[in-house]
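User: Fold this; tokens only.

Assistant: Input:
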Amino acid sequence: MGTTTLFKPTKIQRQALSLLKGGTKHILLFGGSRSGKTTVLVMALIYRALRFAGSRHLICRLRAKDARSSVLRETLLPWLTNTIGNQNYTYLVHENMITLFNGSEIWIGGLGDREQADKILGHEYNTIYFNEISQLSYAAVTTAYSRLAMRVPGCRNLFLYDCNPGSPLHWAYKIFIRKKTFLTGEPLEKPELYASMILNPEDNKEHLPEDYISDILDALPEKQRARFRDGAWVKAEGVIYEKFDETMILKPGELPETFDRLSAGQDFGLNITNVKIGRLGEIIYVIADYGAYNMTTQSFNDELTARGWFGLGPDGLGFPVYCDPAGGERIQEITGGIKANNSVESGIDYINAKIERGQFFVSAKCTGVLSEIWDYCRDEAGEIVKVNDHFMDALRYAVFSDVQQGVVVL
């Protein structure tokens, strides 16, 4: 079996590969564009698949089509062809699965589609590689954790991650950089299991076009340059709630004990979310949120009920839960569920007005809202980027629908 090499790893890429030899279970490579993060992790995954016959490995992203185009076709298949030859593996297109000559399997899929998610999460794996986790919710990633359960003698199971860094409120920043649990903010129980390394384009310069850094990355707007050239964790370009800042994040003890009115917003889908707010005068407080991945609406509502979510409002009655109007019959499965007003731009303008007037605060416990609010942005065409926006949709339903019901006047 003849072998060749695509290219010689750089010094920092060799250092990143050495992380896999340690005792860590979770390894994140983050940094700028075309810094070799994906290549390093694909190299590691192929090595593991070759060394441990009969093992199974998963590469997943938000969308399966993106995993196929950016990882499978651009990196995985070329590496396999140039290391073991295309006669030593089989790619089943309809299954999105590669079988190596030794019986090992490499699966490729997306966590953003229910059918795809059910398919890939129906197996156990020795490696799960989450590609571009800036697009993946914490709930989606942790749901996949239970599938790292395949047993192959001598093979230490691993979670691998990569991303162009997002905001400092992102779950990955809290876990890998600050070594805090995402949901509670407490120190990690076993921080030694989490390792990260920054890889930037400058570290991969020998494998890039001569003008890529100077003419492309250096010319980007400030925030994009910080992310895609320097690998910094910053707010995204075009952030919708640009003026929201950390002074608006309240510790639980800083929240009012009573409110004039309660309401909530409900978003449906594979990532199902609920955001609960309280109003006191003209001020809006985001007091709780909850999200789950691949859960039925009824089970989700049962979980909210078990958490005491639907207690009585200040008027002694149940409060409204404004639901995504596209939810159809699912709205009936939510306690207090009614159709929300889905005027997107008007809702965004209303929330922005509250933020600018200092009339908007978020409990530090609302990790879902806080993980999305600084990355909720528009693209160059001015369109809202529909990635990691489930809590933002639920927030808008909760806040703006009451206005349209005539309860609150701006």
